[in-house]
Amino acid sequence: MSAIALGPVGLAWAGLLVVGVLGFALATGVNLIKDGLVASARTTAQLLGVGLILNPVFARESWLLIVLVLGVMTLIAGWTGGRRVERALRGTGPALTLILLAVSSLTLAYVTQLVVGVDGPQPRYLIPLGGIVLGNAMTAGSLAAQRFHDDVREQRGRVEAALGLGATPAQATQAALARALRAALTPTINAMLIVGIVKLPGIMTGQMLGGADPFGAATYQIVILFMLLFSDGVTALLILRWLRRRAFNAAWQLRI
Question: How many CB atoms lie within 10 A of CB 118?
Fold first, then answer.
């Protein structure tokens, strides 16, 4: 059983959903027309564009093309996440990019080789899984960095008091680090708690729409959620440990 192909008419009908919600918002006194139309236009252009780009990549099955696509995705993820966390401390953006590169490479290699058993350059597996890891890890890392920065800044007096009593920077900021890590992992953990009961995730739904057996689609979704918990947690923890070291100078004075 194959998926039902969508054409321009189907996309046009889908676009009416956007028009509908923007109309309801406007009737309530909230003007979201500009933001909604820009977001919808970018979504359409970006997804159709990447679909056109990936068609020849999927057809050629070249390691060079796979690495090139994943490399560009990593740079974009690092740049996007860096814009959100750079205010925490200068240099956080490049650090996040390097962490994303290391964590996504490790996670993707482990999952595709040991879990799925991908043989050779198969972009149909490597690129979608890599994109899922990068997107979620970027969000977790930037969320953790923002939370840690805000927490330490708000609790600056308490942190400095702990340092004055002989605590190390790691001890003085341990509570802030724990709260930041928990905040970064909460969306993934919450999704794992309700998956299959409250909602069917996008990957599982996409596979079933493509004709896959529901049980087989469920096994892939389990792997992906475990993969995301690992990559999100490691990324958040690494950026937090880096940020904690950079938050203090040699005299253990706060830079934040």
Answer: 17
